[in-house]
Amino acid sequence: MYIDSLCKNTFFRQDEEQNDECDDGATTYNIMGFDIKLDPNATEIVLQTARIKTLDGLVIPGANLRKLCLIANAVQKIDDNLRHVPNLIHLELYQNQIKLIEPKNLNYCTKLEVLDLSFNNIRKIPENFS
After folding, report:
1. Counting C-beta atoms within 10 Å of the first and last residue's C-beta, which end of the chain has fewer, N or C?
2. Pair 32, 47: CB distance under 8 Å
3. What DSSP string describes the chain?
């Protein structure tokens, strides 16, 4: 499996021979910072088709992170893990499985300028979303 590296200060190439499924046939998911090692000094992270389901692991790059792109993964929600990346300027979560936007979790990113949530399962934008 390859994890695209589109930005500087980002890494990533994982072993191609990694199994996509467990013995029971269920899809396995990767966890940032555990299955996919993160550089604590990373300012940009781009993980495309990396089978990421949650935003866990953002505590590792923390305040250093300025750009996070999780493209074509399995992210289901924008959770409070964003509290670990207060200096995030650019967040791309397009082509995931997000159904609901909780504005309170985006409020952690006070410097956010770019937010791309296209090609998700969002059906309604909350009234208090700004």
Report:
1. C
2. yes
3. ------STT------TT--SB-TTSPBP-B-BTTTB---TT-SEEEEES--B-S-TTTTTTGGG--EEEEESS---B--GGGGG-TT--EEE--SS---B--HHHHTT-TT--EEE--SS------TT--
* CATH classification of the domain holding 40: 3.80.10.10
Please list, in sequence order, all residues whose beta carbon lies within 8 angstroms of the beta carbon of residue 63, skipping any fewer than 6 positions away. Answer: 85, 86, 87
Summarize pLDDT for 113-123 with one digit per residue, the tens. Answer: 999 999 999 98
> By residue range, what is the domain housing residue 68?
1-130
Do 83 and 59 form a contact (C-beta atoms < 8 A)? no
**C-alpha to C-alpha distances, 1 to 30, 51, 56, 63, 96, nearest whole angstrom:** 12, 10, 21, 29, 18
User: Taking the model in full, what pTM does it have?
Assistant: 0.79
